[in-house]
Amino acid sequence: MLGDLAAREDVLALSLHVDYWDWIGWSDTFAKPAFSERQRAYAENVRSNVVYTPQFVIGGIDQVAGVSGMKMADLLEVHGAVSKDMLRIASTADGREVVAMPGPGAGALILVGYIPEATVRVLAGENAGKEITYHNVVVSWDELADWNGDEVSVPIPPAAAGLRQAVIAQSAEDGRPGEILGAVRVD
What we know:
Blueprint: H1 2-6, H2 33-45, E1 55-58, E2 62-65, H3 69-80, E3 87-92, E4 95-100, E5 107-121, E6 131-147, E7 152-156, E8 164-173, E9 176-185
Antiparallel strand pairs: 1-2, 3-4, 4-7, 5-6, 5-8, 8-9
């Protein structure tokens, strides 16, 4: 399902691999403890202590556990009706920059580095012996700048070889990740 979402132009589908399944005998090569903590923080936002794999977080606020296609489609339609066109990528003499237009909220501008596709052979656990193809695998998640809702331009460092980049504007709620206010692919 994530592969289908990643192919859509109107959706920025990112895969943040978690490490809490590593105990079953195979460590996910893309998992990061910070991504597990992020998922737990999203759960806290909806007053839950339960996390799922797979779990989709749409717009930073709505969650779908498992692969519920109809619920996902409904939520994507709702979030698609909200304009998230407040981020733009511009080229300058010094490289690229993200321009955040004035917006209704505040938060952080986050630079996301991701691998468009990676196929991995799983060596142990419930998927032992299988080859799994992952899509839009996040390998870096770095805050570019705080954003107060005013127009701002921020330089974007070049991507490492083989990576694509996106910038998201995300609010924070009590130190936890909140609503996605805007998103744009850099390349």
